[in-house]
Amino acid sequence: MTKMRLAIVGAGPAGIYAADLLIKAERDFGVEIDLFEQLPAPYGLVRYGVSPDHPRIKGIITALREVLDRTRPDAQEIGTSASDDEAANRGIVRYFGNVRYGEDITLEDLKRHYHAVVFATGAIRDASLEIPGIDAEGSYGAADFVSWFDGHPDVPRTWPLEATDVAVIGNGNVALDVSRMLIKHAEDLLPTEIPSNVYEGLASNPIADLHLFGRRGPAYVKFTPLELRELGEVRDVDMVIDERDFEFDDPYATEVLGKNKQVVVMTRVMNQWREAQRAREAGETESSSRRLHLHFWSKPVAVVTEDGRVTGLKIERTAPDGQGGIIETGEFEVIPVQSLYRAVGYLGSPLKEIPFDEARGVIPNEQGRVMGADGAQLAGVYATGWIKRGPVGLIGHTKSDAMETIECLLEDRASWWEPVETSPDAIPALLESRHVPYTTIEGWQRLDEHELALGESEGRTRIKVVPREEMTRVSRGE
C-alpha cells in the first residue's frame, strides 16, 4: 500500500493533533506529514490566543512539542533498537514555519506533492457587533487586543491605552481574559512571558474602572469557574456587583441551570463578591484603586460618541423570559466610558481556492470533508479545528474534532490526489527557489531557547520575541 503524504496547513493544536492521530492510525503503513504555518513559531492559539498569565493552559505546549519531537526525521535517525522496517513505518512530521498558504505555497503545489491536505487555520478575526457607533475611535475587537498582548508578529507594537473608564462586551472566557489584562497592574504580569513592549504599554495604562456587559443573567455566563475565580483574585481590584441583577425570579435558571455544577460554583464565587462589596460599603474593609463592574441583563444597543470618539455605551435592561431567553424592558442606561472592547466571538478567514462560508466564518464541510458550492465534496481537501466548526469548545474538543476528520480522510483513500513529486527534498527546494525564509522545528527550538535566555537575564521565565524578522533570524541561526 502507498505510504501517505499529507499536508496540514496550520500548526496550532488542531493541526498537530491531526498529525498525531494520523500517525497512530497509519502505524502499519507509515505516513509523511508536512505542517505549514504562516508564523515562524508553532502552536497557534496556545502561543498567540491565551493570555500570558495562564501558565496551566500554556502547559499544553509540552504535549504538542512531544508530538513534533518524537516524529521529526532526525529523531528517527537516532533510533536505537528499532529495525529498518519498523523505522520506515514510523510517521514523520516536518514543520515549515513562516510559509503563507496562497502566497508561498498554493493548492496546485499541494496537489503536486501530497495525497491530501487538511486545513487547520483556526479563527483569529473578530465577529462583528452591529450596533450604531461600534466603529468609533476607541472601539476595538478583542481578538486584535489579544494578538497585541500575546506578541503576535503581525500587529502593531503599541496599543492606545488612554482610557480611565473601559467597557468590555461579552460573557465568555475571552471577555474575561481581556478584562483581566486591562485591569491588572502591569508589574503583576512580569513573572509571565509578556513581551517587553506589552509590559511598557500596560504600565502606563490609566484605567480605574472596567465595565463588563452581558445580555443575560449571572447563571447564563459562558465563563469557566477557573477563569471567573482568577478574575476575582487580581490584586488591588474590587469586584462591583449590581444587586438588581440577582433579584429576578427566573425558574429556568433555578430549575435547569441551577443543577449544573459549574453554575453552582460560579454563583458561589459571585455571592462572595457581593459579600465583600457589602463589607466595603459598611466601611469594614478598604477599597482598592481599581474596580471591575459586572453588568448582567444588559444588552448593548449603541455606542455613544462625540467627535467620532467613544464616550459611553448605551444599554437596554433585559429580563428573563422564564425559558432561558430574554425580554427587552425598554429601560435604557448610558455608562460613560472612553474605550470599548467587543468579545462576541471569532471568525475564520477565507483561503485562496477553498470554499468559504462568510456568515459563519468557516470552511463548509461535512465531518471535515470540504464541500464545494455545488454541494459536492472536494476530493483531497479537509478541515479541522475552528476553521471547521467555528470558535466553540475548549482545546480538548479539538482532539475529538481532529479524529473525526482523520477518520473521514482515511475512508476516502480511493479519492486521494495522485502526487507526481514525492521526494522529501522537493518542498525545501521549492520554498528556497521562491526565496521563502522558512523555519523548522529545530529552528523553533532555537528560538525557544533564545526567549528563555532573554527572560533569565532579567529574572523572568521568558521574554517573547515579537518582530517576525527577528523571530525568523533567530530560528534560522542567522
Describe what you observe in this structure.
With 478 residues, the protein is an alpha/beta fold. The chain folds into 2 domains: 212 residues, Rossmann fold, CATH 3.40.50; 221 residues, FAD/NAD(P)-binding domain. It has 18 helices and 18 strands. The protein has a 7-stranded mixed beta sheet with strand order 3-2-1-4-18-17-16, sandwiched between helices. Strands 6-14-7-8-10-9 form a 6-stranded parallel beta sheet. α1 crosses α15, α11 packs parallel to α13 and α17 crosses α18.
Short account of what is shown:
This protein has helices at residues 13-25, 44-48, 55-58, 60-71, 73-77, 84-89, 107-113, 142-149, 173-183, 196-203, 225-232, 251-255, 261-281, 386-389, 395-411, 426-433, 441-457, 468-475, and strands at 4-9, 31-36, 92-96, 116-119, 125-126, 139-141, 165-169, 209-213, 237-241, 290-295, 298-306, 309-320, 326-336, 339-342, 346-347, 365-366, 369-371, 377-383.
Descriptors for this entry?
478 residues, alpha/beta, Rossmann fold, FAD/NAD(P)-binding domain, 2 domains, 7-stranded mixed beta sheet, 6-stranded parallel beta sheet, 18 strands, globular
